[in-house]
Design a protein that fits this description.
CATH topology: Rossmann fold
CATH architecture: 3-Layer(aba) Sandwich
Number of domains: 1
Radius of gyration: 13 Å
Structural class: alpha/beta
Number of helices: 3
Number of strands: 3
Strand order of the largest sheet: 1-2-3
CATH class: Alpha Beta
Helix content: 40-55%
Amino acid sequence: MVNLHDRIERMCYLGPAFIDITWGAGGSRPAATIEVVSNAQKVYGVETCMHLICTNNPTDKIDKALNVSSSSTLSAWLVDYQKP
């Protein structure tokens, strides 16, 4: 996680309009996604977009992701679904 935060910090020097954080990327726990989003906004002052991949994810997992993220400071979602 330290490596990721270091990379976010370096990217922020380039002045992005936002960064995209993929929900549960690489098998990470969902809470880690919210932590990364929160830190990116609070520590680095960069807007975030949570990228939620719905393909092959059960509906209850998608609902949980949306519920958890809606209670955070996140203001943008990208919901991605491709028919399997």
